[in-house]
Amino acid sequence: MEGWQQQGGTRDSGAWSATPAAENDGRFPMELRLPASEVPSTKSSGQWAVPWSEQQQQAAAEEPEPKKKKRLWLVVGLVVLLLVAGGVTGQLVRPVPEPELKLTLPATSHTFAGTAPQLPWSGQGQASVYVDGLGTMGSSGGGSPTPTASVAKVMTAYVFLKNHPLKPGEAGPERAVSAQGVAELPARRKRGESMLGITAGQRLSERKALEALMIISANDVAHELARWDSGADQAFVRKMNEAAKALGMNDTTYTDPSGYDAGTVSTAADQVKLLTAAMKVPAFAEVVGNRAYVPADGGPARPGGNILLGRLGVVGGKTGYTDKAGGNYVFAARKKVGGVSTMIVGAVMGQRSPSAVGAISVAQRLVQAAEGALTSVTLAPAGGRVAQVDDGLGGHTPLKTDVPVNVIGWPGMTVPIGVAGDPPHTGAAGDRVGAVTVGAGKIPLVLESKLDEPSPVQRLLRLS
Fold this sequence. Notes:
Strand content: 25-35%
C-alpha cells in the first residue's frame, strides 16, 4: 500500500512495529514494520510464507525429550512383556520331571546286635548254609570240587523240567522205557546202583519218572530221562553243564546224569545255588516233597532217603553216597520269622560215613542252629508311612504298606533297606506304586492319598 514502508523490526516483538516518520519521507507520522523473522518470502507456488530462521528449523526437527523417553519405555515394556509371556508359556509346556520313590524311614539299613552265629560244622568234608534273600550264613571245609554222587540228580530234574515244564499236579506225557535202558540193568545191579528196575514195554509219566529219580534215586531212570530229552547221555550232560554255568556254579562239572561217575564233581556252595533255584520250580518242589515213591500201578510204596523231610521245617532235598564221594546231602527248610516264610538251603558233602546218614545228621544240627539264629525286627507297622512319591517340583505324596515292614537276619548282619519301582504321575489312593526293599525281599507300597500332576503354579516356579 502506498505511503507504507516495510521495515525489519525487532525479533522479540513478534508483531508489526511503528517507527517515527522522521525515518521516512515525512509524509506519515509513523510506519509499520514487520519483524525480520516474519518478512514474507515468495516461493515457487507464488504464495506468501513466513521465512524460518536456522535455529527454528533445527528446533522443529528435534522431538521434545519427554516424548522420546516415553516411547523408549513403551518399547522396553513391550519387550519385557513378550519375554515374560514366552517364559510363562515355556514353563507351562516344559515336560515335568519323572516322579521318584524316596524312603522316609530313618535309616537305609539295619544291623542286628550281637556277633555272627557259630554253626556246628562237622570238621570234615565241606558244608554251606544259605538263607534265601539274605545270603550265606556260613560255610566250612573250603571250596574244592568233590564227587556229588546222587546229588547230581537235582540238576537232572532241573534241566528236564526246564525243557519239559509240568503244571502243579500234572502227570505229564507218558513215554516207553528204552531197550537200551533195559539192557543196562544187569550191569547196574552188579555195581549196586540204586534203581527203579524198569522193564521192557513199561511206560512212565514224566511226573512218575521224576519221582523215581528224586525219591528213590533211580539211576536207570536218570539215564532214561537223558535219552528222552536229548537222545543220548552226553547231549543231555552238555545241557547240565550249560545250566550250571548259567547259575554261576563255577566249580561244578557234570559227566553223567546220575552222579554215579566220580567225574561229576561240585562244591557245597554250588549245590546250594542249584537247590535254591530248583525249589522255585513248583513241580520240582512238589516232587521232592514226597516221602515215598508210589508206582502208578498201585504197587507197594518205596520210602525215600530224605529222612529229615517233614521235620524241622525241611521241605525238600536229595541224598547221595558212593565210596569215593562219601555221604552227601542237600536240603531246603522253611521257617516263619516275623510272620515271613524264610527258606534255608544247605549242603553237606564228603562225610566219611557208610551212607548218607552221616551227612543228614550234620545237616540236622545245621538246620536247628540256623533257624535259632534267625530273628526279626519291625521297622514300621502295617499302614505306616515308609516312603513318598517326589514329583521333582516340591510335591510329596506319602506311601504306606498294608503289612508290617519286618527285617529278618541274624546277629551281626546288616540288611540294606530301600525302595524300588517307577511311580506314575497320577494315581488314586490305594494304588500300588512300587515296593520297599528289605534285603532281597519286597513289600508293596500303596498311595495313602491321591497322586496329582504338578500344579500350574509349581510348573511356573520351578528352577530346573
